[in-house]
Amino acid sequence: MIYRSKAPLRIGLAGGGTDVSPYSDLYGGAILNATLSLYAHATIEPIEENQIRLHAIDQKEEECIECINELPLHGKLILLKGVYNRIQKDYGVPAKNFRLSTFVDAPAGSGLGTSSTLVVAIVGAFVEMLRLPLGEYDIAHYAYEIERKDLGLAGGKQDQYAATFGGVNYMEFYDGDKVIVNPLRIKQQYLFELENNLLLYYTSKSRESAKIIEQQASNVVNQKETSIEAMHQLKQQAQMMKEALLKGRLNEIGEILDFGFQQKRKMAAGISNELMDEIYETAKAAGATGGKISGAGGGGFMIFYCPGNTKYSVAKSLEKFGGVSRNYQFVEHGLTTWTV
């Protein structure tokens, strides 16, 4: 038997950063995101050799390890090892001679939630193999615990839930890791128009999100008023975005994104930089009415709202920066698993 899974990457449309502790614990967070036709893939297949083989195909990294209950968390392929260790601890993996292969459709550190989505996909493959009775909330929380608590990697809570649930969701975050996912019933023509007008642009500059997130968290702990107020405003932005999408006021999307872009830069140093500011202003000069940095910031993907047919002139204007525009579609389905 071969066990496969895939989970979609996401773009955050509003509220980015308010899902990160300790802000979400103290004040509650709110985020609006949507999943894309870009995925993290995982496959578990039996092998004859009495060993565990881990293979991140896109990263060109591979490791063969003897069959032990707990893999050492050093070197490469930390996410793969972390999921195996937690599954082995909680459920046991009876057939240990297997290959775990992964592939992600976007570069690591690109701001589309690649790491968390990959963890969800790997968890999904094990759930499929072991027939674990875990629902969507269970899987998302499990992936969150593995990445944030077991592995100690800094970040928020939205990515695991977006990857597991899929679709366009308004998410609320509270103290004690409480998360509520509210699927939005957006009219199909509104969603088509949003998809048509949103340009997904990869700056070709990856970044280390953990440092930015750690500074953001530190600003909250130290009660830095400018940062906290910016997060309050971003939480309000999520509500504004939800209303605009549900009511079909798409002409407001660019302005709402622009409002968020200005606020997000106040949360922590390094979220934006000189290059990203120049890219942003160039896009606006070419017809975009607003945009945002995807994920923690510092590089990776950006999105721009381009009304009418301005998407083409905006894409052309950004060619000089050496990045690339990526085609995509919004997708409804989250984590999907199957057996061959």
Describe the structure.
- This protein is α+β, with helices and mostly antiparallel strands and 340 residues long.
- It folds into 2 domains: 3-185, Ribosomal Protein S5, domain 2 (2-Layer Sandwich), CATH 3.30.230.10; 188-325, Alpha-Beta Plaits (2-Layer Sandwich).
- It has helices at residues 23-27, 78-90, 114-130, 136-150, 158-165, 188-197, 209-221, 225-247, 253-264, 274-285, 310-317; strands at residues 3-14, 29-46, 51-56, 61-66, 98-104, 168-174, 178-183, 198-202, 290-293, 301-305, 324-325, 336-339.
- Strands 1, 2, 3, 4, 5, 6, 7 and 12 form an 8-stranded mixed beta sheet that branches.
- Strand 3 (51-56) and strand 4 form a beta hairpin.
- Helix 3 (114-130) crosses helix 4, helix 4 runs antiparallel to helix 5 (158-165) and helix 8 (225-247) packs antiparallel against helix 9.
- It is globular, with a radius of gyration of 20 Å.
Give the gist of this structure.
This protein is α+β, with helices and mostly antiparallel strands and about 350 residues long. Helices cover about 40% and strands about 25% of the residues.
Properties at a glance:
single chain; 340 residues; alpha+beta; Ribosomal Protein S5, domain 2; Alpha-Beta Plaits; 2 domains; 8-stranded mixed β-sheet; 4-stranded antiparallel β-sheet; 11 helices; 40% helix
From the alpha carbons, calculate the radius of gyration and give it in angstroms.
20 Å
Mean pLDDT: 91
| Second-tier CATH architecture of the largest domain | 2-Layer Sandwich
Order of helix and strand elements from N to C terminus: EHEEEHEHHHEEHEHHHHEEHEE
Q: Which percent range fits the helix content?
A: 40-55%
Helix- and strand-based class?
alpha+beta
Question: End-to-end span in angstroms?
Answer: 6 Å
How many domains, as an integer?
2
Strand content: 15-25%
* Poorly predicted runs: none
Shape: globular
Q: Which fold name is given in CATH as the topology of the largest domain? A: Ribosomal Protein S5, domain 2
Helical stretch tally:
11
Q: Major beta sheet, specifics?
A: 8 strands, mixed
Count of individual beta strands? 12
